[in-house]
Amino acid sequence: MPKYDVRQSDLEHLVGKKFTLEEIENILFDLKAELDDYEDGIITVDYSDTNRPDVWSVEGLAREMRGYLGIETGLPRYELTPSGAEVHVDPSVGKVRPFVAAAIVKDVNLGVPGYEQLIQLQDKIMLTYGRKRKRVAIGTHNADLIHFPARYTTAKPDAISFVPLWESREMTLREVLEYHEKGREYTHLLEGLERYPVLLDAEDRVISFPPIINSNDIGNIGPETKNIFIDVTGTDEKAVLTALNAVVAALAERGGRIESVKVVYPDRVVEAPDLSPKEFIISKAYAERVSGLRFTDDEFRKLLERARYSVKSVDGDKWTVIYPAYRADIMHQRDMVEDIIIAYGYNRVEPKKPAFFTRGGASEYTKLEDAVKELLIGASAQEIATFILTSRSVVERAKHIPVVVLQNPMTETFSLVRPALLPTVLDVLSANTGEEYPQKVFEVGDVVVSSESSPTGTRTEQHVCYALAASEATYTDARQVLEFLLDQLGVNYRLKESDKPWYVSGRSADVVVGGEVIGHIGEVHPEVLESFGIGMPVVAFEISLSKVLGALK
Amino acid sequence: MESERIARSLSELERKVIKHVDSKKPVAEIARAAGLSEVEAMRGLQYLSNKGVVRLVREEKERIVHTEKGREYVGKELPERRILNALKDGSKKIDELPVTKEEFSGVIGILKKAGLVRFEKGVLAITEKGKSFIFPWENCYDRLDCLNDETYKILNRRGLVTKEKSVVWYAEPTELWEDVLPHVREDLIDKITPEILRSGSWKDKEFRHYDVVSPIPKNYYGKRQPYYEFLRRVKDRLYALGFQEEEPGEIVLPMFWNSNALFMPQDHPAADIHDIYFVAAPKKYGSIPEELVEKVRKIHERSWGYKWSDEKAKRLVLRSHATALSAFLLASKPKIPGKYFTISRVFRPDEFDYKHLLEFNQLDGVVLSEDITFRDLLGLLKDFAREFAGTDKVKFKAGYFPFTEPSVELFVKHPEKGWIEIGGAGMFREELLEPFEINVPVIAWGLGIGRFAMMELGIQDIREFYSKRLGYLRSAKKIWRV
To answer: What is the C-alpha R_g of chain B?
Structure first.
């Protein structure tokens, strides 16, 4: 969820209206955003939609607000003229960072607020939409300093040097990656490459070293910069073009005139930005069916316009609608229906109750779980709850074998999925050696066991584990509870001598139903108790409730 | 009468000791007189003292005791005696004496100083005085009751005795004692036993009165874990609202089922709405249903505009949201119209602190029906607000979820905290439903029950949901009003 700062005065200036903070809060709410923070005239906006980079700056937000408030509705139109400038693409970028798009915005009135917003918008787009610059990276430069045609090409790490942004000395590309703050942050994006992407002007001066850093001479813009050259590079052409559209549309809101730049690839030419509106057909009946609202044609048209669409033509129920080029999120008429409801006002929609009856009820598993808990509580055991994620140490001290191990754990304490409940139950007993004994506890919950026949190699099962820690605890105590439980559930089982490493040899059994082992019972081995620091005998059993459920079917 | 009432409540132990109480009598003596162990007598006197019948007085005394080394000679002859006796039969070399070297060097000084032995040409001989001499401590060595300062010093220097502080308890009668004593009856019935019932002997006896109000030791019985109890009560609410609970799902899933089948793209910012745990073992990749995958792939490539990767779809992850269960539900041809829900544990890499867990329970559900609309969705959310937050004051915010359109977030007015978000919902996108061949609208919703649980359980630290502290679990109040 992108968060960005806007100056309240700047927002009001761009919308053309003054607001109280509360009014802004309510409007944001209706437009998929929250007022996250406010300090010294600066509003932090938390915008929900990760698909709308066009609204990640004050200019785009103001554009949406003008529509929503009816100040300026319909399709925003931006003039576009060709600049005549070209960027020539060398085939060597193909394997490195294949796509580039560029534009020039002239006579823009940035000032301090506009400058801040441009930097922030670039950062936000590169961070989320641009996947931390991997997919999309943006550079903004002083257009007056560039001699065209520019060249997007590659260079060996030591072949070229330039003064990177905020530095005073020349560095080679390799040095930038080693010493510059941004170089170190993003060096992984170029790892393993023999040649790095560079954007050069006609005099072979470095404009930028994407996706790392601009040149300090050309790429250092400020609040006073009037004519801005924007380059966008990346690995996904559609995303590159969308990002360029979002940036130029924002600058156009500050009076900038947008000029296109021709990108000449070895095999084709792409002139960007392409700001021609796009068409989509929506059925009014469909919008009514999804929303549950009824619209007159006039209402429907006004709602579309407030959502910054324009109606091109109407043919019966088929409405041909045009929408701005900076939007890349419209995949289905559903997307427009949401915009229509937003324009209508989410909080003006009258809620209604579904008119059909359904009978609610518990899952088969919950029914069994309830019965198990009731019976064990009847046996005076306290229910406990533990995390499903646990550590290798807990599992191995309980002499169990790990099954599911995580690739990216946050900490060793939660680095694998428990394969059984007994380890985490023993972990709880070990945390309570200062509590009064006897301690009778049980846990019911998910475990993940290995299963060769399953598509994932594992299977999630629900288990129950009971444990009694008491000075006089013996196998018989646990068995009495087990038999009480299984007899009451109507499970037809038998016990079979077994030799589990976590139990004392000769004092443990498997619980067998049909031919299948559904659990085990025994006296916990002193070696296990010692490793958990438990100074009290413990007897326990663990049963797979998933298997019990299967057996009872 | 107070004294009579007290007399009737005396236990057998109390009745046994009460008559032996005398002005400042040591408890040990009372025990002997009553034929009880000291511990038993002390317990009886303690009860009597609680009732104000006797007063217990504690005195610290110093007494002489044997050291560990000194205890070895109790009941035996001391080395000095053994040496004197041996010499009575004639002079001996040192190594012929029946004592160890250490014992010898410990006593030879004393023997010589007292003029009881002397050395003659390398052998030790007894003097005349020595033949009949007896050291003052010899006769009382076992009980140590005849030592004076001087003799104590001698034995102490030899490491045989030391002084130890000991506590002596005395019991003294109070004024009440005199009143109570005449009413004490021997023939009160203590415990009602099967014998007493069988013989009917209770008929001409009286029952001892118990102390029925003083604190007693606690006993712990079984009950549900408070947080799980809360979740169970939430389920009851949903049954009552007509929702059928889904059976538990898999925790380890291919990315396909966790995300892609829900129209979440493979390589797109929309896929990054939260972090996901990847599985390293036992396998990194699972298998996925070809026919369904093919349909999903086409729609993804068409709608999101990227190149689908089967490898990414097969990558195994831990279930990161309960909506993953909805994908399975849709694939299982559910009954329509139908309302379904699940409470499932989900896993996300995050900070682990008082506000965040790495795994938590999500309440999630769907409604499938021919004619449902966005208005029905809002109606449902209003019901939830009333059921779970007890309020009609709701606000709807336009939201964003990759799998729903339109999407909405539910806010309720909390008396202190202002507007708080309690859930997200929306209508499943048609691109999501198409591969499952579901052609009715589907409402999908999720409620943040963690916040309600924290309020209900009165906890500030979310980690308390899974508290390991038995003390807390034993004392936590039963959740019954949810």
So the answer is: 43
* ipTM of this predicted structure: 0.89
Give me the helices (H) in B200-340, please: 226-240, 255-258, 290-303, 310-314, 323-331
Strand partners, B317: B253, B278
| A451, A532: one domain | yes
What single-letter amino acid sits at A209? F
- Rounded CA separation A153/A175 (Å): 19
Note whether A380 contacts B247, CB cutoff 8 Å: no
Contact B343/B322 with Cβ under 8 angstroms?
yes
pLDDT tens, per residue, chain B with 482 residues = 688 888 888 888 899 999 999 888 899 899 999 999 999 999 999 999 998 999 999 988 888 889 998 898 988 889 999 999 888 888 888 888 898 888 888 888 888 888 899 888 878 889 888 888 888 888 888 888 888 888 899 889 888 999 888 888 999 999 999 899 888 887 888 889 999 999 998 998 889 888 888 888 888 999 999 999 999 999 999 999 999 999 999 999 999 999 999 999 997 655 666 789 999 999 999 999 999 999 999 999 999 888 999 999 999 999 999 999 999 999 999 999 999 999 999 999 988 998 899 999 999 999 999 989 999 999 999 999 998 888 899 999 999 998 999 999 999 998 888 889 999 999 999 999 999 999 999 999 999 888 889 988 989 999 999 999 999 999 998 888 76
Nearest residue on chain B to A337, alpha-carbon basis: B406
Residue A14's domain comprises: 3-68
Q: Is the dihedral of CA A255, A260, A263, A267 positive or negative?
A: positive
Q: Given CB atoms, is A441 within the 8 Å cutoff of chain B? A: yes
Q: Report the C-alpha gap between A91 and A21 in whole angstroms.
A: 53
User: Does A358 map to a domain?
Assistant: no
CB-based contact, A128 to chain B, within 8 Å: yes
Q: Does domain B68-159 have CATH number 1.25.40?
A: no
CATH code of the domain containing A223: 3.50.40.10
Mapped onto helix, strand or coil, the DSSP state of residue B87 is helix
Whether this prediction's pTM lies above 0.90 is answered by: no
Chain B, 202 to 241: residues with Cβ < 8 Å from chain A are 218, 220-225, 227-228, 232, 235, 238-241
CA distance linking residue A416 with residue B249, whole number of Å: 18
CB–CB of B374 and A291 under 8 A?
yes
Count: domains in chain A: 4
Q: What residues of A are in contact with residue B431 (Cβ under 8 Å)?
A: 331-332
Shared-domain flag, residues A495 and A418: yes
Q: Please indicate, yes or no, whether residues A64 and A167 belong to a single structural domain of this protein.
A: no
- Residue among A236, A358, A456 whose CB faces B252 most closely: A456
Q: Is A73 within a domain?
A: no
Domain match, A429 and A494 both: yes
Q: What is the largest CA-CA distance in chain A?
A: 92
A287 and A196 part of one domain? no
Q: Where are the alpha helices (DSSP H) in A137-256?
A: 173-179, 181-186, 237-252
Give the position of tokens 């910012």.
Answer: B269
Q: Quickly list DSSP for A391-460.
A: -HHHHHHTT----EEESS-SSGGG-EE-S-SHHHHHHHHHTTTTSPSPEEEEEEEEEEEE-TTSTTSEEE
Same domain, A437 and A528: yes
B383: contact with A, CB 8 A cutoff: yes
CATH number of B2-65+165-207: 1.10.10.10
B286 touching A (Cβ < 8 Å): yes
Domain with CATH 1.10.10.10 in chain B: 2-65+165-207
Contacts of B292 in chain A (CB under 8 A): none
What's the fold here for domain B227-475?
BirA Bifunctional Protein; domain 2 (3.30.930)
Q: Nearest Cβ partner of B399 from A32, A403, A417?
A: A32
Contacts of B407 in chain A (CB under 8 A): 338
